[in-house]
Design goal:
With 191 residues, the protein is of the alpha+beta class. The protein is built from 8 helices and 8 strands; from the N terminus they run αβαβαβαβββαββααα. It is globular, with a radius of gyration of 18 Å.
Length: 191
């Protein structure tokens, strides 16, 4: 009986440790469809959800965020296993998938809701974002206009926006090509 109790307790402790390894990070990089694609390809990332954050309007809709004055950005919530991928690696992926120098949005999507932002949930994340920010400004000798924001609340976008790059693959490819996203990223980061 003691042996069974030992196994039971061991399973509970192991499961709680594994569950605690799941972390979340939040990034705005213009179109959340493109950001979703870039993060879902990373080992250790379990799920990426499109949504809105950074504003004051409760439960905003896509139309309100894009055409209204909600203060929200298009944001992705990245759910990841911290034992397999670090916040630093997520941050590196973020930078390589945005234009940190565009004050008007990202690629062909212009307007406040398409601005880039890295959100932090603790001081360590804030320090890492600020360190990268300074490094990029020095490397490129340009002002980085990406926002650094404290994370407050995330609102999930409508179902039609989730996994858009997979569900509407051909439409997504047309959109991405028309925006010249890869071409601009290659020019910035010299891939």
């Amino acid at each position: 009986m003691r042996f069974l109790l030992f196994i039971f307790l061991n399973l509970i402790i192991t499961n709680s440790v594994l569950a605690s390894e799941k972390s979340k990070a939040y990034f705005a990089g213009g179109c959340f469809w493109c950001m979703e694609e870039s993060f879902e390809k990373l080992t250790g990332v379990e799920k990426v959800i499109s949504g809105y954050s950074g504003g004051k309007t409760e439960n905003p809709t896509y139309e309100e965020v894009t055409y209204g004055n909600t203060g929200h950005l298009e944001v992705v919530e990245v759910i990841y296993d911290a034992s397999l991928i670090s916040f630093e690696e997520l941050l590196k992926n973020f930078w390589l998938n945005i234009d940190p120098f565009d004050p008007f949005g990202q690629f062909c999507d212009k307007g406040y809701s398409y601005r880039s932002a890295a959100f932090y949930t603790n001081q360590k994340e804030k320090d890492l974002i600020e360190k990268d920010f300074k490094r990029l400004e020095k490397k490129f000798n340009k002002k980085v206009v990406t926002y650094i924001r404290e994370f407050e609340k995330f609102y999930i976008a409508e179902d039609r926006h989730q996994d858009y790059y997979q569900v509407y693959f051909l439409n997504y490819l047309k959109y991405k090509k028309a925006c010249r996203r890869e071409e601009i990223l290659n020019r910035i980061w010299k891939m």
